[in-house]
Amino acid sequence: MNVHDSERLSGLLEEAGYVPAPEGSDGDADVVVFNTCAVRENADNRLYGNLGRLAPRKASRPGMQIAVGGCLAQKDRDTIVKKAPWVDVVFGTHNIGKLPVLLERARVQEEAQVEIAESLEAFPSTLPTRRESAYAAWVSISVGCNNTCTFCIVPALRGKEKDRRTGDILAEIEALVGEGVSEITLLGQNVNAYGSDIGDREAFSKLLRACGTIEGLERVRFTSPHPRDFTDDVIAAMAETPNVMPQLHMPLQSGSDTVLKAMRRSYRQDRYLGIIEKVRAAMPDAAISTDIIVGFPGETEEDFEQTMHVVREARFTNAFTFQYSKRPGTPAATMDGQIPKEVVQSRYERLVALQEEISWDENKKQVGRTLELMVAEGEGRKDGATHRLSGRAPDNRLVHFTKPDQEVRPGDVVTVEITYAAPHHLLAEGAVLDVRRTRAGDAWEKRNAQEAAKPAGVMLGLPQIGVPAPLPVATGGCAAH
């Protein structure tokens, strides 16, 4: 969701007349924007560390501006300017559309602008967007969250759930497909609760089925659902809609009923495992991933063993595992029974070791299978050295495959046979069995040609501080005289 917000910030700035800074020159850019998260404590530390490293650069560059937005800005508000008085703009989660105006106002008035809206001013999908990918796109279907999990500060920062009109969602998807996009991911803080705001409990399954009728849309994914709202009609829609991929990210958080109750998660172990069983019955090849928190206040060794039990039973393809991070402003932050760091670390390492073993075992089952991959861009960091390309299987597993003799573009589809499995990726070391050129590949090629003459990417992440690469030697023009 933050990546998609960053795409909107990029689109807003470009529409306002800004142009992308050259690759690797964040510290020498005219404007640097941080889009922040507040889920874990290290986000705070990284932000202030990077703001500190930018301070001397800004002092030496009159006119340079720094803006901080997102959840941390919504939470800390005036604190950011107090800790880092060289920041020019602070904006929150509800008013990202104001960024260009706030930058201009800060420039004219020569003082920091802090503007935090308490509620959503306009659904963010109405804002211009500079998408990172030509062939895959995020589509927000709701913002905010109505849950009250005791460890999470997001509802306080993103507000109550607000659903988007189904017609608007489908119109955006059709427009994206018209531009060449072949894969979309539906986004929501609690994506399968879609419909609660409009009074239709089956609205999400209906939306999935409607996506199945859009010609040219090859792959549909969604994230992140909540077990409480994961109903049988959603499972049926996934299984019966060909372009909805056999992939599910289902946050567990804990396998202990006692801890789940303390977390204020409205399901228990039996309910969670029952969902997994139904999904596997409807889609035997589905890849299921999860989120798990280790060391929640009051978690006993027995509670932790219940989490390990669920991991063994569910056999997740992969799991995003986190050590509990105390967030000021959440009920869990003041609970009794805060777990010592060394105990949390020990449990975390045991959980990771178990999940690594399961991930590897599950990936080994893919060896010998023939899969269709959507070719990806930037997924394989070693592809150049290994003479490989990378792609995503229907269940979203990452596959590195031998580069074929014919041209293959991101967004195209290749058919390969899996020959080797690692815990976090698969290899297809033989020859590619088939290449299907797609409209998505055409879109990537067209976009690449358009971008070739201008700098790449508006950089709205963490700055890379350091000496920029030297400019190329000028030839012709004034340099010739």
TrEMBL record:
Pfam families: Radical_SAM, UPF0004. Gene3D superfamilies: Methylthiotransferase, N-terminal domain, tm_1862 like domain. It catalyses: N(6)-dimethylallyladenosine(37) in tRNA + (sulfur carrier)-SH + AH2 + 2 S-adenosyl-L-methionine = 2-methylsulfanyl-N(6)-dimethylallyladenosine(37) in tRNA + (sulfur carrier)-H + 5'-deoxyadenosine + L-methionine + A + S-adenosyl-L-homocysteine + 2 H(+). GO terms for molecular function: 4 iron, 4 sulfur cluster binding; metal ion binding; tRNA-2-methylthio-N(6)-dimethylallyladenosine(37) synthase activity. Its main location: cytoplasm. It is an enzyme of class 2 (transferase). Keywords: 4Fe-4S, Cytoplasm, Iron, Iron-sulfur, Metal-binding, S-adenosyl-L-methionine, Transferase, tRNA processing. Its cofactor is [4Fe-4S] cluster. Residues 131-362 form the Radical SAM core domain. [4Fe-4S] cluster binds at residues 145, 149, 152. InterPro entries: Elp3/MiaA/NifB-like_rSAM (IPR006638), Methylthiotransferase (IPR005839), Methylthiotransferase_CS (IPR020612), Methylthiotransferase_N (IPR013848), Methylthiotransferase_N_sf (IPR038135), MiaB_methiolase (IPR006463), rSAM (IPR007197), rSAM_horseshoe (IPR023404). Residues 364-432 form the TRAM domain. Binds 2 [4Fe-4S] clusters. One cluster is coordinated with 3 cysteines and an exchangeable S-adenosyl-L-methionine. It is found in: Cytoplasm. Residues 1-108 form the MTTase N-terminal domain. The keyword Transcription does not apply. GO terms for cellular component: cytosol. Its EC number is 2.8.4.3. HAMAP family: tRNA_metthiotr_MiaB. Belongs to the methylthiotransferase family. MiaB subfamily. Monomer. Catalyzes the methylthiolation of N6-(dimethylallyl)adenosine (i(6)A), leading to the formation of 2-methylthio-N6-(dimethylallyl)adenosine (ms(2)i(6)A) at position 37 in tRNAs that read codons beginning with uridine. This is tRNA-2-methylthio-N(6)-dimethylallyladenosine synthase. The lineage of its organism: Bacteria, Bacillati, Actinomycetota, Actinomycetes, Kitasatosporales. The gene is miaB.
